[in-house]
Write a structure and sequence with these properties.
- Keywords: Magnesium, Metal-binding, Nickel.
- By secondary structure, the protein is α/β, with parallel strands linked by helices.
- The chain is built from 13 helices and 9 strands.
- A 3-stranded mixed sheet has the order 2-1-9. The chain has a 3-stranded mixed sheet with strand order 3-5-4. Strands 6-7-8 form a 3-stranded antiparallel sheet.
- The protein is globular, with a radius of gyration of 21 Å.
Length: 348
Amino acid sequence: MSAWAEPAGRLQVEVRLQDGVIQAVDTRLQRPLAQLSRLLVGQTAEAALARIPLLFALCAAAQQVAALRALERAAGWPAVPEVEQGRTQLSELELIRESLLRLVQDWHLPLPLERLKALVALCRRGAALLQPLTALRAPPLPADPQLEETLAELAAAWADLALPIPADWLGPRLSRWREVALGGPLPAVFDPAALSALLAQLRAGDARAEIAGAPRITGPAAIAGMQATAAAHIEQHVGALLRRTAQAVDSLQQPPLPPAVTGLAAGEGVGLAQTARGALLCRVQVENGLIGAWQLLAPTDWNFHADGPLRRQLCGVRVAEEDAGALLRDLILALDPCVAFEVNIAHA
């Protein structure tokens, strides 16, 4: 393991169960954001960018893209559209690869191993060809027939899959949750248009994943929306991940530009990138050529807020005591934390 390997984070979820009813849900997310910040503050932009691939095992490309966008905006040097689109392709290729692996490993998507390997290899090949864009102030790439061929092969391989709908392969696994009614409502969806309020609290040193005191959700959790039962909820989450993966494959041919960020102070930069789990935000403050502040909000920070989906949906839910742990684990997997998690059931 590298000396700069990602420090471990952890998610602990404790449920208090009484007479078959969930009375309370305590979600505790421990993420080493302060430690990560200390490794980057005081560095030049180039030095910080060199460390990022060594610090993050998951979503490493999205971390690079968000950091590049933040640092270049802080320097008053917006990248040209062709570069931004190429960087979006890079993060979308990572999204496709990580989503496929998650769908197969966690949810047993019926995808033959050889096809999975071929899709992952195409994603890796495309990402390697886009690597020059991870340099600060990178110029646009020259026309690259190999990149075009790789993306076309990926699109064709995806179109040839003919995957079943989630209900067809998830049905047996989720049948035990069809009578488990969930509560609600869910938090509002994270919207980049609300960045001004979020930036104000980040500048004040408040890096909690909330806006105006309220939690938000992002990624497949936001796409799936509120469902009546645990089975429908999980099925919609998995379906949303599958649809988002298909959307990412389509977007490779005409990648969108990142949303504009306005109202930034001198030396301040904000970068957004999309991951398999949702929106990733990086904020930096650069002073005299060195990073003075580095703040990060990842999808796990949003989706596992203490007052997030788990607490809102599970409080008051009736579930057999012997099933409570399995239900909780399936709901957590549907939200997909980027850290290890453990579940504790406390009986009142």
